[in-house]
Amino acid sequence: MQWQTIQLADLKNTKKLFPDYKVLDSQVLQDVLNRVETSFSNFTTPDKNGNRRGQSKFKGFHYYKSFTYPQLDNLNIVKDEQNRICINLAKIGKRAYGLSPPHTNGFQS
Fold first, then answer.
1. Could you give the C-alpha distances from 11 to 25, 54, 90, in angstroms and in order?
2. Which of 2, 23, 38, 46 gives a 20 to 30 Å CA spacing to 82?
3. pLDDT per position as a tens digit, 50-79
4. Nearest 5°: phi and psi at 95?
């Protein structure tokens, strides 16, 4: 956990070294560090039976298709000029998204 604390504290310097990171919200970058920490702790910390989950495998950028905004709420859901439902993301702007139908858990009403 010590490396994660250092990395989180050093995000400001990271943004200076890599200007492309300035367009990313700080909470998104913090979430990436949390995911890496979880991956390493899964490898190094045994479960209740004493087994380890195995070494993490490198995955290229095309495998990482999600990001997290921890403080997002319903106020960020807006409509755009074409009346589409959008989510307003800090430093990114409005992005349209599709709503999935509600899950029925196999039951039909």
1. 11, 29, 17
2. 23
3. 777 777 677 777 776 777 777 766 677 888
4. -135, 125
